[in-house]
Hints:
It is built from 4 helices and 5 strands, in the order E-H-E-H-E-H-E-E-H.
Amino acid sequence: xxxxxxxxxxxxxxxxxxxxxxxxxxxxxxxxxxxxxxxxxxxxxxxxxxxxxxxxxxxxxxxxxxxxxxxxxxxxxxxxxxxxxxxxxxxxxxxxxxxxxxxxxxxxx
Length: 109
């Protein structure tokens, strides 16, 4: 079960929720059929809980929202991209350890 602190972003609300956010935003691009995406889901949830108030965390289902992943060159999933002030700060592709996701976040804090 996903944490209630993890938002759902899509083509319709990405600009408002991510690009115009007042805090850094960690976005997990995923799909329901993606096993590595399921593997990192608990890590995304944990980060959302631990960094609540400092970093906004959300997911984009690439099957339901094809425009946004295309705009950011998402070719493989899971892809986790960190945005700050409307710009890409860094990204990782694949099921990576929590420490690697935290290192991504620390670049923006």
